[in-house]
Amino acid sequence: MRLLLTPTLLISLSLLGAAALFGAVPGSVQAQATGDTKKKAPAKAPVPSEEDDEGAEGDEEPEEAGDSSEPASDGDEGAGDEVSDEDAEDDDEVSTDAAPAGPPEGGLRAPDLAMPDVALEAVDDEEEVGPTVEESPALGLSRLEEGAPPSSDPTRDAWSAPLPVITLHGYLRTRLELQDTFYLGREAANGVIDYPFSRFRPGENGVVPAGGCGDTGSLTSGTPCGSEALGFANMRLRLAPTLALSDDVRVHALFDVFDNFVLGSTPDGLSTLPSGEVLRSSRDSEDRLTYSQAPPEVGRNSLQDSVRAKRAWGEVTNRGLGQLRFGRMGWHWGLGIFANGGEGIDADFQTDVDRIMAIAKLFDLYFMAAYDFSDEGFIQANRLDPAALPYDAIQDDDVDQVMFGVARRMSEEEQQDALQRGDVVLNGGAFLLYRDQLLSSRGSGAGTDLYGNGPSRNDPTFLVRREAEAFVPDLWVQFLWEGLRLETEALFVLGSLQNKDDNAFTEDNFDILQFGLAFEGEYRLLEDKLGIYFNFGLASGDDDVEGLSPTQPDGSPAGQRAAGTQPADRTISTYRFHPNYRVDLILWRNILTQVSGAYYFKPGISYDFIRNAFGQQLGIRADFIYSRATSSLQTWGNDGNLGLEIDAALYYQSEDGPDLLDGFYAMLQYGVLFPMQGLGYLSENGVTQVPGGNPSLENAQTVRLILGIHY
Predict the structure, then answer these.
(1) With helix as H, strand as E and coil as C, how does 192-254 read?
(2) Per-residue pLDDT, 340
(3) What is the full DSSP assignment across 304-333?
(4) Cα 296 to Cα 281: distance, rounded to the nearest angstrom
């Protein structure tokens, strides 16, 4: 006999199968599967025996455990009363108009294998007490295994494993920027590339393209382009997830999507070959026919991919011993002139270290010790054998680094309580960092191709003796009292460098002596709406280095001159602040990229028209920055005066989101730089650097708009 399966019969069979399946699902899982979201009254706690009372003494309630003293919600009124028969009948019915059950408040949490110490209510002798079910160690172990990461074997995947807590923070930002005359009107001196100012001269400036650059193009037009400004927009999406297996075991990561990606830089018809040749598809054979954007891909249309993984590290905490951190992690210390985490919404640079670090807290002090894998030198990898793991093939070319530190910092809650009482809050700390290197694998014969071909590791030109070491002591102090904040960080870099040449051993025997200092003062009044600021910074300079830029025209790092050209001084003394320590908008942020070989004074004032406890702000700020070189001989014009800059900002932040900084953020900035002789040209005895006379410097201006969402 042939059975005809009608749609009604199929639906009936499906419902019967679902009922049979979910009938074996216990408790809350069954309620969610059947749509039964009616809130149940909690079961009464069992009457504790005398033995249980004795065993429970001294146990502390875990922080994650629920508190029985919390007030019941509207749907739980009468939760402590005896459940009526009518309510019991309603519990068996499926509620069709109730909202689907969501995750518990605070997100999904990992199972807690520790027995919670729940406060027990008094139970009358007349009330009936239901039986209790105690979880066996075997069941707890199976639940722990279910919470493990998915296996590569699909038959061993934890299909119904409970998820741990996953939190996600970060931001989305888009920045529009106009840079007007950042090259300061400078010209190339005697044919020498005028670096770093030439980087900001528009590429079409002074160029006569085919057809000219006038209002009307023609075959005979010779009108040059006169652009003075650069304009562009970029964006970044930052994802900072945290996977918390418990309060004591966490995994952190940091990813940047479209990391400082220039908007409009990857049209769908553009491809760039490894040779640098630009190709266009037949679909978009002309620039104006591009209608979409393609994702950035290395080797095709960009120098970086769409997603960049920057950090991944683990934290394991033992409440009695301390905390262990391991992996690639960020590092921020003090004001950030040496180690800067770069976590602000307008940040561009950050300090990331491959580190194993131990932290212990004793007497309100944090003691730290860390070992860093700063530079492992030559790494053996072979593209023809992708299954082979890369490894460190040379040990003596490693840069070893260790750090020891101690610090005191109050928690935010303790700090606020102390300030409200009128007490003084003093935070601070110090660390000592040591690094050394014997050999360098960056000699003239260094380097292998992607197939593992290259010079032998025994080739004398492959390795060169470096013999370098450095000590970095750093001190940070923060003073808080009412609306006053005084904070400073000072450090030395002390060391030696026997040889800096990559091609030979010259035995230069350089000494390293650098100093950096930053101070920030802030005073807030009128209910914290008015802010008065004074900042100061100093970075040691060097008479034997030409220019304050950290890089050369070819992109290589700026360094000390050869020993033969400076027999009287072999000291490397130019210190450079971390590039993410922002001082201004033009000179140190863009043109010179970081404070180096100079000192500055920066007074400022701000006023918030709107400022509330939930994070909402609307205000304005103005800063004045005067910069002067530590050594006048290090400047381009051999004059200590570098420039005066005025910066202004209008900013707004909404109060959306659970955290104080969450929400929409917008800031409009304007800056103008008045360059001085230190950024100009040399002129001795009527001889000028530029043929025909040194041109006068021009003012630089910038306008920036930052739009972001912090979450």
Answers:
(1) ECCCCHHHHCCCCCCCCCCCCCCCCCCCCCCCCCCCCEEEEEEEEEEEEEEEECCCCEEEEEE
(2) 95
(3) S-SEEEEEEEEEEEETTTEEEEEEEEE---
(4) 16
483 Cβ partners below 8 Å, 6+ apart? 523, 524, 525, 528
Residue 631 in 3-state DSSP? Answer: coil
| Closest C-alpha to 269, from 278, 260, 277, 261 | 278
Q: How far apart are CA 283 and CA 464, in angstroms?
A: 53
Residue 145 dihedral angles phi and psi, to the nearest 5°: -70, -35
Greatest Cα pair distance in the chain? 116
Q: 366 and 406 in contact (C-beta within 8 Å)?
A: yes
Per the CB < 8 A criterion, the answer to whether 646 and 668 are in contact is no
Distance CA(226)–CA(222), nearest Å, equals: 12
The amino acid occupying position 504 is A
CA–CA gap between residue 624 and residue 645 (Å, rounded): 6
Q: How many helices (H) and strands (E) does the chain have?
A: 6, 25
Nearest in space to 635 (alpha carbons), one of 696, 700, 546: 546
The Cα-based distances of 210 to 23, 219, 279, 488 in angstroms read 80, 7, 21, 56
C-alpha radius of gyration, the chain, whole number? 33
Helix (H) or strand (E) holding 145: helix 137-146
The answer to whether the beta carbons of residues 621 and 582 sit under 8 Å apart is no
Cα torsion angle, 680, 686, 687, 691, sign: positive
- How many Å apart are CA 360 and CA 531, to the nearest integer? 36
Q: How far apart are CA 217 and CA 211, in angstroms?
A: 5
Helix axes 7-22 and 27-34, enclosed angle (nearest 10)? 160
pLDDT tens figures, 355-407: 999 999 988 899 999 999 998 877 777 666 667 788 877 888 889 999 999 99
Nearest Cα neighbor of 347 from 432, 240, 495, 489 is: 240
Q: How far is CA 347 from the centre of its chain?
A: 8
Q: What's the pTM value of the predicted model, to 2 decimals?
A: 0.74
pLDDT digits (tens, 9 = 90+) for 158-175: 434 455 689 999 999 999
* Cα dist from 334 to 6, 340, 341, 431, 482, whole Å: 73, 8, 10, 11, 20
Strands in 482-629 per DSSP E: 484-497, 510-525, 530-539, 571-572, 598-611, 617-629
Residues 27-54: pLDDT tens digits? 333 333 333 433 333 343 444 444 444 4
Cα distances (Å, whole numbers) of residue 46 to 275, 415, 452, 630, 688: 77, 43, 70, 76, 95
User: Angle at the Cα of 533 (from 531 to 534), degrees rounded to 5?
Assistant: 170
Q: How far apart are CA 476 and CA 408, in angstroms?
A: 10
The DSSP 8-state label assigned to residue 623 in this structure reads E
Q: Please state which of the ranges 124-128, 617-621, 683-687 shows the lowest mean pLDDT.
A: 124-128
User: What single DSSP character describes residue 381?
Assistant: -
In angstroms, the Cα distances linking 690 to 140, 192, 199 are: 80, 10, 18
Q: Which residue has the tokens 């940047």?
A: 256
Specify the pLDDT at position 678. Answer: 93
Q: Residue range 422-443: average pLDDT?
A: 91
